[in-house]
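Can you make up a polypeptide sequence alongside its tokenized fold?
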Amino acid sequence: MPITPHEASRATREIAALAPIIPVIVVKDASHARPMAEALVAGGLPALEVTLRTPAALDAIRAMADVPGGVVGAGTLVTAQDVRNAVAAGAKFGVSPGVTDELLAACEEEGLPLLAGAATATEAMRMLARGYDFLKFFPAEASGGAPALKAIGAPLPQIAFCPTGGVTPANAGEYLALSNVLCAGGSWVAPQQMVDEGRWDEIELLAREASKLERVRK
């Protein structure tokens, strides 16, 4: 069922409210997907972004879609075909590094709530004009980090963000303290070596620590 930009932003805002961190996941082996998702959800991070950067990504989304308590999304959406593939695999939301009219149209047509990337005030304003008021700030650290996002928020308080790209346990608190940040995206909660070795208990612990990060508005 098609979705409007306002409905899309409302849906992604609801997903952002689930936890302070959305794990950004790269899956190389689809057999790891379900136990990884179970560990992350058990640790208190139910919203999961699987990046479409590997051949196993769509199979991983299919496996994670059935995990109780989880909400799986597809990241690195670039084309309309990416959107269709993600929806067919069971993705409940999408995330993109940037945005094009083609990508927006595909997400709206397929009914996939999109967290679209923006790195400048101009990009954010263009998305706001279309009806999107919750965006991904990417690449966060390379674009100036928390100070830059705070500066963008001053003249555009009606737009909220999910910073992603270079967010770590050391700086996540700086982002989460901003009044225009609802959550942040991070890959540290599922390190590749831990995933490769099936160290799900340790991943659950990392998720539990991340889930306790405070969103203190300034």
Observations:
- The chain has one domain: 5-211.
- The CA atoms of residues 83 and 107 lie 6 Å apart.
